[in-house]
Amino acid sequence: MSYGRTWVLSAFIALSFSSPAYANNPLNSGPLADFLNIFHQQAIPPQVVVWKHPQFKKGDIVISTTERRLYYVLGDGQAIEYGVGVGREGFSWSGTKTVSRKREWPDWTPPAAMLKRRPDLPRHMAGGMDNPLGARALYLGSSEYRIHGSNEEDTIGAAVSSGCIRMTNRDVIDLYNKVKVGTKVVVLK
Fold first, then answer.
1. b/e map of 148-178 (b: 16 or more CB within 10 Å)?
2. To pair with 28 at 20 to 30 A between CA atoms, which of 35, 53, 75, 158?
């Protein structure tokens, strides 16, 4: 196949899959989208770090909003450190929660308080690459807060959310696969 035909075929496939008319776009959510997220370059790549906080046990999640980092405690003096986006001024919080449920490519329904501030938001959005919750969501107790993915990788390391903890899709998939319902989550200021 010539270069011209290859380019036309590639453009056709890209436009076909990005069209709103293509409701079940395999690039939008599911295993293919998960696979493609592996290749995204990350501004703050995860790393294993020394963990000197014995009050937190293996499997706990600790989030430092001032450092804008999430730590998944491995035990034996180690944790995985991930870059995160946190709540902007007036929306940050601290406390202890547990992971109450987990969802892959979750739907999003903005809370009433958010809709009051932003009436332009959709009332409901199906899961997928354009959804603000990204590839995975870990729901925190009965609160409206979540640890979730984001397609806005430039917000990782910033204080920009309405209280949720944002991760890259790649990182949230990794964390999601490690975490069980009932996991302790401690958010520190």
1. bbbbebebbbebbbbbbbbbbbbbbbbbbee
2. 158
Q: Residues with catalytic annotation?
A: 148, 164
Residue 24's Cβ-count burial label (10 Å; 0-12, 13-18, 19+) is: exposed
Distance CA 27, CA 37 (A): 10
- What's the distance, CA 119 to chain centroid? 24
**DSSP conformational letter for 108:** B
Alpha carbons 85 and 168: distance in angstroms, whole number = 9
Q: What are the tens digits of pLDDT across the range 36-87?
A: 655 555 678 999 999 999 999 999 999 999 999 999 999 999 999 999 999 9
Q: Judge residue 139's burial from the number of C-beta atoms within 10 Å of its C-beta, 0-12 exposed, 13-18 middle, 19 or more buried.
A: buried
